[in-house]
Design brief:
Structural class: alpha/beta
Largest sheet: 6 strands, mixed
Helix content: 25-40%
Strand order of the largest sheet: 10-9-8-11-13-12
Order of helices and strands: EEEHEEEEEHEHEHEHEEHHH
Radius of gyration: 21 Å
């Protein structure tokens, strides 16, 4: 029989088999067959299950081919990869302008990662009810920037309900990864969408201004409106994997269309003469924050960190 992984807690996996939830273990043989992954089975995977000889326990015998996945460097071992979730229709990155503040660099790294695996991604600017005049200006600039790059941008408040109708329309019938730093309000958003989920919520630390982890393991929640929401633990940083230095620019749309006009075919858009990307940057056609993100990712990928 086959089912879909709803949650992984390390040693046990919760599997949805046609609406029935089963607990299953991973066969020892499978653990040794998948090298370089900290989690050979991920939330969202479709798996083939078998009963043991005594008929008591259910084992995962095979992970079926994935349509796509989001992968990052393992937070425990930089030489290993960690699959955040698989078989996704789209991703929603929740960001905040303060308490805690989400950096543009983090946003750009996430978008490069999802772009690498062809997963459409939208941004949700949460805690709209807390924005002051200066933050409203930043919100407008961020919205204009990312919409110009082809990303949907939602303005939300889980507390007041602002934007929740638009969010429901975005999520309906889709399997969506919900990601972002700890403290940006992912669990509050999920609870506002479907109060029956009852996800734990914590405030941002008053001493550090950073979020406190409330989600320990990624979990897929079935939505009454149709579709699934994959709630993930807060992500502090996003290490890019499976990308060569020459490929990085292709995942910056404002650069990709100009690269073919560079004087040199192997131009890396740093200080080469006749670089069309640097010219566009100088002319204000590429946002400095985006170019800074490109350089940061390029250096990480080049160093193999």
């Amino acid at each position: 029989m086959t089912g879909r992984v709803i949650q992984s807690t390390g040693s046990w996996y919760e599997i949805d088999v046609e609406g029935q939830l089963l607990q299953a273990r991973l066969r020892g043989k499978m653990r040794t067959q998948i090298a370089g992954l900290s989690n050979p089975v991920a939330v969202g995977d479709w798996v083939r299950l078998e009963r043991d000889e005594e008929g008591k326990d259910t084992n995962i015998a095979e992970v079926l081919p994935r349509d796509n996945y989001i992968i990052r460097r393992s937070p425990r071992n930089k030489h290993h990869k960690h699959i955040v979730a698989s078989n996704l229709d789209q991703a929603l990155l929740v960001v905040t302008l303060s308490s805690p503040r989400t950096s543009l660099g983090f946003i750009d790294r996430f978008l490069v990662n999802t772009g690498t695996y062809h997963i459409p991604t939208a941004l949700a600017i949460n805690k709209a009810d807390l924005l002051n005049a200066k933050e409203m200006s930043r919100k407008e600039a961020m919205t204009d920037l990312y919409r110009s790059l082809g990303h949907e941008v939602l303005l939300l408040s889980a507390l007041s309900g602002e934007g929740m109708g638009e969010l429901r329309a975005f999520l309906s019938g889709k399997t969506t990864l919900l990601a972002g730093h700890s403290g940006v309000g992912k669990s509050s958003i999920a609870n506002a969408l479907e109060p029956g989920l009852g996800l734990r919520v914590k405030e941002v630390s008053s001493s550090s201004g950073k979020g406190l982890h409330t989600t320990t393991f990624a979990r897929m929640h079935k939505l009454d409106m149709g579709g699934y929401l994959v709630d993930t633990p807060g992500i502090k940083e996003f290490g890019i994997v499976d990308l060569e230095p020459a490929e990085v620019g292709h995942y910056f749309p404002e650069m990709a269309g100009r690269m073919e006009h560079c004087r040199f075919n192997n131009c890396m858009h740093r200080n080469e003469p006749g670089c069309a990307v640097l010219q566009a940057l100088e002319e204000g056609l590429i946002a400095p924050s985006r170019y800074d993100s490109y350089i940061s990712i390029l250096e990480d990928v080049s160093a193999g960190d």
